[in-house]
Specification:
The protein is of the alpha+beta class and 330 residues long. The chain has one domain: Beta-lactamase (3-Layer(aba) Sandwich), CATH 3.40.710. Helix content is 38%, strand content 20%. The relative contact order is 0.18. This is Asparaginase. It comes from Oceanobacillus jeddahense.
């Protein structure tokens, strides 16, 4: 069961209510705050699973073998938006690894951000698989399969060894039995899984407490992923996005997913947070996360301020007049 997490008022009258779920864990894996039911109902990660899906490829030597840059490695965890810096890094990555674009099973797409999309179309360019939001993740899948001597055909099938390993990694990090996970295909055509929100938060806690991993090897991989995402905040999403604001804070790992899911964890405090807006909207993310950080007395006030810069609590008319407000309810 969900709870009310936001209300929108216009002219002083209630216009919208948004339900959702929030779970915050401390270093001892204890729930220190929750809203809605967070321990029973599986919720799909969507793209918030990308740092976990990147574990196999980070468990190879392809960075050294193909001389990949930090930005190119970050694409394995990214939901890129088609900005020029994304396009350049994707082109370089696929060329260095010598993959054919037709090997990607994700659909063809234009850049997602409006400005590069307009430029791309005006230049007469067609949709490409390489422009898909998840293309970097798929290149990581192909790279792992090839390096391990696995078939690159069917890499998105549930029974492919790569996807079986990802499910096992998720089971380890989330501490939720893989047999009980929800499973489906994500928009890009590969498996995605669902766990209760507490377990989702627990999986992100491991990225800021890698010593919780079952081996030194896994600890090293989690640290590499954290460091890589931190070093390339705009690659993970793009400028003026929640992920970028949070990843510019050297204390935070963060990744959003479709349908209102967001996960983050704080390294110094050893706190992790998972949330879902039930309606699936992403518009409330900056305000909800800012209010959560305020609630736990987070010390980096600039990060909170930058989140408010992304989305004001004020509701504006098309002419910029204040006509209402959004209230986050924790």
């Amino acid at each position: 069961m969900s709870g009310i997490i936001a209300e929108e008022y216009r002219g002083g009258s209630l216009e919208n209510k948004h339900e959702g779920y929030i779970c915050i864990l401390n270093k001892d894996k204890e729930i220190i705050y929750s809203k809605g039911e967070v321990e029973q109902t599986p919720i799909f990660y969507r793209s918030a699973m990308k740092p976990i899906q990147a574990i196999p490829v980070f468990d190879t030597d392809i960075q050294e073998k193909y001389q990949l840059s930090s930005a190119e490695m970050a694409l394995f965890c990214a939901s890129q938006r088609g900005e020029n810096y994304h396009q350049k890094s994707l082109e370089s990555l696929i060329q260095k690894m010598d993959f054919e674009e037709k090997s990607l099973i994700c659909g063809e797409s234009y850049p997602l951000n409006e400005s590069p999309k307009i430029k791309y179309i005006c230049e007469g360019k067609k949709k490409r698989r390489l422009m898909h939001n998840c293309a970097g993740k798929h290149l990581g899948f192909l790279a792992y399969a090839r390096e391990k001597g696995l078939s690159t055909e069917g890499y998105g099938d549930f029974e492919h060894p790569l996807q079986e390993r990802i499910r096992e990694e998720l089971e380890i990090l989330s501490e939720y039995p893989k047999e009980k996970m929800s499973q489906g295909k994500d928009g890009c055509g590969v498996p995605v899984y669902g766990v209760p929100l507490r377990n989702m938060a627990l999986s992100y806690l491991k990225f800021v407490s890698p010593e919780m991993a079952l081996s030194k090897e896994k600890e090293t991989i989690l640290k590499r992923i954290f460091k890589t995402m931190q070093a390339n905040p705009e690659i993970i999403a793009s400028h003026d996005f929640v992920c970028t604001v949070l990843l510019k804070d050297k204390n935070i790992i963060a990744k959003g997913g479709a349908q209102g899911v967001y996960c983050l964890a704080l390294k110094e405090e050893k706190i992790s947070i998972a949330l879902k807006v039930a309606s699936g909207t992403e518009l409330l993310w900056p305000l909800i996360i800012a209010e959560i950080l305020k609630k736990i007395n987070y010390q980096n006030k600039k990060t909170i301020s930058d989140l408010y810069d992304l989305r004001s609590t004020e509701i504006l008319s098309d002419a910029g007049e204040t006509v209402g407000e959004t209230k986050i309810i924790l």
